[in-house]
Amino acid sequence: MSLEPGPEPRQPRLRASDADRERTVERLRQHHADGRLDLDEFSERMERAYEAKTLAELDELMSDLPAEATRPAPPASQTADRGGHARQAFYRHLTSYLSVNALLVGIWAFTGRGYFWPIWPIMGWGIAVAGQAVRALGPGADRPERDDRR
Question: CA torsion sign, 30 to 34 to 35 to 36?
Protein backbone atom coordinates (compact mmCIF):
# COMPACT_ATOMS: atom_id res chain seq x y z
CA MET A 1 0.00 0.00 0.00
CA SER A 2 1.43 3.34 -1.04
CA LEU A 3 0.93 6.55 0.87
CA GLU A 4 1.86 8.63 -2.17
CA PRO A 5 -1.00 10.70 -3.59
CA GLY A 6 -2.13 9.52 -6.96
CA PRO A 7 -5.22 8.80 -8.96
CA GLU A 8 -7.80 6.96 -6.94
CA PRO A 9 -9.09 3.71 -8.43
CA ARG A 10 -12.30 4.19 -10.38
CA GLN A 11 -15.25 2.73 -8.53
CA PRO A 12 -17.89 1.68 -11.08
CA ARG A 13 -20.79 1.84 -8.61
CA LEU A 14 -20.30 5.57 -8.01
CA ARG A 15 -22.65 8.06 -9.59
CA ALA A 16 -21.33 9.74 -12.75
CA SER A 17 -20.85 13.49 -12.81
CA ASP A 18 -21.57 15.79 -15.74
CA ALA A 19 -17.80 16.07 -16.27
CA ASP A 20 -17.53 12.25 -16.46
CA ARG A 21 -20.29 12.19 -19.08
CA GLU A 22 -18.64 14.97 -21.11
CA ARG A 23 -15.25 13.20 -21.05
CA THR A 24 -16.90 10.00 -22.28
CA VAL A 25 -18.74 11.81 -25.08
CA GLU A 26 -15.50 13.53 -26.12
CA ARG A 27 -13.71 10.16 -26.28
CA LEU A 28 -16.64 8.72 -28.29
CA ARG A 29 -16.44 11.72 -30.64
CA GLN A 30 -12.74 11.02 -31.24
CA HIS A 31 -13.41 7.31 -31.89
CA HIS A 32 -16.11 8.37 -34.37
CA ALA A 33 -13.62 10.70 -36.08
CA ASP A 34 -11.09 7.85 -36.20
CA GLY A 35 -13.68 5.66 -37.98
CA ARG A 36 -14.29 3.15 -35.19
CA LEU A 37 -17.93 4.18 -34.77
CA ASP A 38 -20.39 4.99 -37.52
CA LEU A 39 -22.82 7.88 -37.06
CA ASP A 40 -25.67 5.71 -35.74
CA GLU A 41 -23.44 3.98 -33.18
CA PHE A 42 -21.95 7.30 -32.11
CA SER A 43 -25.39 8.91 -31.71
CA GLU A 44 -26.73 5.96 -29.73
CA ARG A 45 -23.71 5.82 -27.42
CA MET A 46 -23.75 9.57 -26.94
CA GLU A 47 -27.40 9.43 -25.88
CA ARG A 48 -26.66 6.60 -23.48
CA ALA A 49 -23.69 8.53 -22.07
CA TYR A 50 -25.84 11.54 -21.24
CA GLU A 51 -28.42 9.25 -19.62
CA ALA A 52 -25.83 7.24 -17.63
CA LYS A 53 -26.22 7.26 -13.86
CA THR A 54 -23.06 5.39 -12.83
CA LEU A 55 -19.45 5.15 -13.92
CA ALA A 56 -20.07 1.49 -14.82
CA GLU A 57 -22.62 2.56 -17.43
CA LEU A 58 -20.07 4.95 -18.95
CA ASP A 59 -17.35 2.27 -18.89
CA GLU A 60 -19.70 -0.12 -20.71
CA LEU A 61 -19.99 2.35 -23.60
CA MET A 62 -16.21 2.27 -24.04
CA SER A 63 -15.63 -1.45 -23.40
CA ASP A 64 -15.11 -2.46 -27.06
CA LEU A 65 -12.95 0.57 -27.94
CA PRO A 66 -9.23 1.15 -27.35
CA ALA A 67 -8.38 3.03 -24.17
CA GLU A 68 -7.04 6.05 -26.02
CA ALA A 69 -8.22 7.24 -29.38
CA THR A 70 -5.46 8.10 -31.79
CA ARG A 71 -5.19 11.83 -32.07
CA PRO A 72 -2.58 12.91 -34.58
CA ALA A 73 -0.47 15.88 -33.57
CA PRO A 74 -1.50 19.01 -35.42
CA PRO A 75 1.01 20.24 -37.98
CA ALA A 76 3.36 22.95 -36.70
CA SER A 77 1.98 25.44 -39.21
CA GLN A 78 -1.52 24.89 -37.85
CA THR A 79 -0.57 25.49 -34.22
CA ALA A 80 1.30 28.67 -35.11
CA ASP A 81 -1.54 30.08 -37.24
CA ARG A 82 -3.84 31.67 -34.67
CA GLY A 83 -5.05 34.13 -37.31
CA GLY A 84 -6.27 31.28 -39.51
CA HIS A 85 -8.37 29.92 -36.66
CA ALA A 86 -9.85 33.37 -35.99
CA ARG A 87 -10.69 33.76 -39.70
CA GLN A 88 -12.41 30.36 -39.80
CA ALA A 89 -14.44 31.23 -36.70
CA PHE A 90 -15.40 34.55 -38.26
CA TYR A 91 -16.56 32.95 -41.53
CA ARG A 92 -18.68 30.42 -39.60
CA HIS A 93 -20.20 33.27 -37.59
CA LEU A 94 -20.82 35.31 -40.75
CA THR A 95 -22.51 32.35 -42.44
CA SER A 96 -24.92 31.84 -39.54
CA TYR A 97 -25.57 35.61 -39.35
CA LEU A 98 -26.45 35.82 -43.04
CA SER A 99 -28.62 32.70 -43.10
CA VAL A 100 -30.61 33.60 -39.97
CA ASN A 101 -31.18 37.16 -41.14
CA ALA A 102 -32.19 35.99 -44.62
CA LEU A 103 -34.76 33.77 -42.91
CA LEU A 104 -36.03 36.74 -40.84
CA VAL A 105 -36.34 38.92 -43.95
CA GLY A 106 -38.17 36.05 -45.67
CA ILE A 107 -40.61 35.83 -42.75
CA TRP A 108 -41.12 39.60 -42.87
CA ALA A 109 -41.81 39.47 -46.63
CA PHE A 110 -44.15 36.48 -46.29
CA THR A 111 -46.20 38.08 -43.50
CA GLY A 112 -47.18 41.22 -45.33
CA ARG A 113 -44.22 43.57 -45.51
CA GLY A 114 -45.27 46.01 -42.82
CA TYR A 115 -42.76 47.67 -40.52
CA PHE A 116 -39.28 46.27 -41.30
CA TRP A 117 -38.66 44.70 -37.90
CA PRO A 118 -35.72 42.48 -39.05
CA ILE A 119 -33.55 45.61 -38.95
CA TRP A 120 -33.14 45.21 -35.18
CA PRO A 121 -31.56 41.73 -35.15
CA ILE A 122 -29.61 42.63 -38.32
CA MET A 123 -28.11 45.70 -36.63
CA GLY A 124 -27.65 44.17 -33.18
CA TRP A 125 -25.98 40.98 -34.33
CA GLY A 126 -24.21 42.91 -37.09
CA ILE A 127 -22.28 44.91 -34.48
CA ALA A 128 -20.89 41.67 -33.04
CA VAL A 129 -20.04 40.35 -36.51
CA ALA A 130 -18.27 43.61 -37.40
CA GLY A 131 -16.23 43.48 -34.18
CA GLN A 132 -15.21 39.91 -34.88
CA ALA A 133 -14.30 40.86 -38.47
CA VAL A 134 -11.95 43.57 -37.22
CA ARG A 135 -10.23 41.11 -34.86
CA ALA A 136 -10.02 38.30 -37.43
CA LEU A 137 -9.29 40.23 -40.63
CA GLY A 138 -8.07 43.64 -39.52
CA PRO A 139 -4.57 44.98 -39.04
CA GLY A 140 -2.45 42.82 -36.79
CA ALA A 141 -4.78 39.81 -37.05
CA ASP A 142 -1.87 37.49 -37.91
CA ARG A 143 0.32 38.59 -35.01
CA PRO A 144 0.48 36.27 -32.00
CA GLU A 145 -1.64 37.32 -29.06
CA ARG A 146 0.13 39.21 -26.29
CA ASP A 147 -0.58 38.93 -22.61
CA ASP A 148 -0.34 42.47 -21.22
CA ARG A 149 -1.46 41.52 -17.72
CA ARG A 150 1.17 42.05 -15.07
Answer: negative
Q: What is the pLDDT of residues 57-72, one digit of tens each?
A: 999 989 998 887 555 5
In a domain, 50, yes or no: yes
pLDDT digits (tens, 9 = 90+) for 12-57: 788 989 999 999 999 999 998 888 989 888 889 989 999 999 999 9
45: closest CA among 68, 66, 29? 29
**Beta-bridge mates of residue 15:** 54
| DSSP SS3 for 113 | coil
Helix 39-51 / helix 18-33 crossing angle, nearest 10 deg: 170
In total, how many domains does the chain have? Answer: 2
Residue 98 is part of which domain span? 76-137
The span from the CA of 108 to the CA of 124, in Å, is 17
Q: Residue 119 falls within a domain, yes or no?
A: yes
| Structure letter (DSSP) for residue 143 | S
Distance CA(143)–CA(82), nearest Å, equals 8
Cβ neighbours for 112, distance < 8 A, ≥ 6 positions apart: none
For residues 85 and 132, state if they share a domain.
yes
